[in-house]
Amino acid sequence: MSGVDFLKNLIAKKRKAADDMATESGGSKFIRYADLPNKEREKYEKGQDELREKDKQNKAELQVKSDEIINDVSDIPRVDAIKKLRERNLPVRLFGESDRDALVRLRKHEIDQPDMAVGWKNEYQAAMNKAQADVIDEIVHGTYGRQKKQDFVYMDPVDEATWTAIKKRAEAIGLNDDIKNDSIVVHDFMLFILSRWHKDLDSRTLEHKMSPAGRGETGHHRQVMEDIKPLLRDLQRGKVNSDIRKHLVNITRTVLLDHNYIIANNAYMELAIGNAPWPVGVTRSGIHQRPGSSKAYVSSVAHVLNNESQRKYIHGVKRVISKCQDYYPADPSKCVEFSK
């Protein structure tokens, strides 16, 4: 299309728009300035009516599809259904409702709100509130200070003899490629630090526990314990990925034998984000092989990006290293952010 044809089409469109707004009187057409806002308003309302009608049709189609899906919904364990209902802040069971009815209600909410931000919550704040509620509950029921059943199995006793035994076993870690032994030593090291942390928190006074600082400390511990559970479980079973286990063995050996927290922190950074020269572990972003991508080994992979569970327990590993430095400090030249 040439420039002249383009101008002709544009003039024709403008002329047609003017004719739509023009008023005929005495054989001549003219446009009243007062009619311009009304014409624009009518055009806008007409467009909105069309959009509303289209939206109504889409909703009707979605309702038919959702009814078909709900009728064909397959059963899931009741425990999973309860968990999903609580994630959406919905009642676990309504009056006179069967398990099947509750499952259908859950499925209907999942269809109506598929993009709901499940899990987008402040986990640290939730841990703080839970810690305060537990202390208040113990005081009300008169069980404060007594030995109670824990949700997590801590190491006992937490003393220097146990720590020395773990260090002795760590001398052979990573040398013979013994997956089971390496995993158990890493597991015992982390569990010992977490158990000592828990013991120190329990020994505080009631005033300190209820203070904002005390609630913050308890919240940090609870959040780390919840996040690191999958890692400890896999370590105990010896089923941790070989690349992640390699980094964890390196961190554990550096902390227990060399007492060099700076090198351990560098090993943690390799575990978390890798040291690849391209952005955070990306080795192939298209259909073509990237030059140098064959050199991307374990140290180049950003494990923190794999999934949410790994991101959480890798962050928990960092807190374990920091607490270990607090309990067993080395020379200032070997510590991260050393403070006397």
Kindly describe this structure.
The protein is mostly helical and 340 residues long. Among the domains are: 1-31; 138-281 and 297-334, RNA Binding Protein, Prp18, Chain A, CATH 1.20.940. Helix content is 63%, strand content 2%. It has twelve helices and two strands, in the order αββααααααααααα. It has helices at 3-21, 35-71, 78-87, 99-112, 123-141, 160-169, 179-202, 206-210, 212-237, 242-258, 261-273, 308-327, and strands spanning 23-25, 28-30. A two-stranded antiparallel sheet has the order 1-2. Helix 7 (179-202) crosses helix 12 (308-327). The longest helix is centred in the first third of the chain and has 37 residues, at 35-71. The mean pLDDT is 77. This is Pre-mRNA-splicing factor 18. It is found in: Nucleus. One of its GO terms (cellular component) is U5 snRNP. It holds the Pfam family Prp18. One of its GO terms (biological process) is generation of catalytic spliceosome for second transesterification step.
